[in-house]
Design brief:
Order of helices and strands: HH
Largest sheet: none
Number of helices: 2
Mean pLDDT: 81
Radius of gyration: 22 Å
Structural class: mainly alpha
Strand content: under 5%
Number of strands: 0
Helix content: 40-55%
Length: about 100
């Protein structure tokens, strides 16, 4: 993978934590509160935390994951088997 390619943090998340499902749940909760109660202040009370949750997971979290080293491709565990460790023994002796 080249240095210019960025790894998508969404590829590590299950289906229920994808951008489309976060948007669907948020819009359903906000719209549902208005549809059921027809009260603007209740809808606002629902919309504030739901919008904060959606904003965090759709805008802030992906960027934080890209900036961290968590998304870097992991080295294959079999690629360094058989390499000598500092004491002269091989790593596969301990597996």
């Amino acid at each position: 993978m080249s240095a210019q390619e960025s790894v998508s943090p969404w590829s590590y998340k299950p289906w229920w934590c994808q951008p489309w499902s976060i948007l669907l749940v948020g819009i359903t909760l906000i719209g549902g509160s208005w549809a059921l109660l027809k009260t603007w202040w209740v809808t606002i009370l629902v919309a504030i935390p739901v919008s904060a949750w959606m904003g965090f997971f759709l805008l802030i979290w992906p960027e934080l994951m890209r900036q961290s080293s968590v998304l870097q491709p992991l080295q294959s565990p079999t690629s360094d088997l058989g390499q000598k460790s500092g004491d002269g023994s091989t790593r596969d002796e301990y597996n």
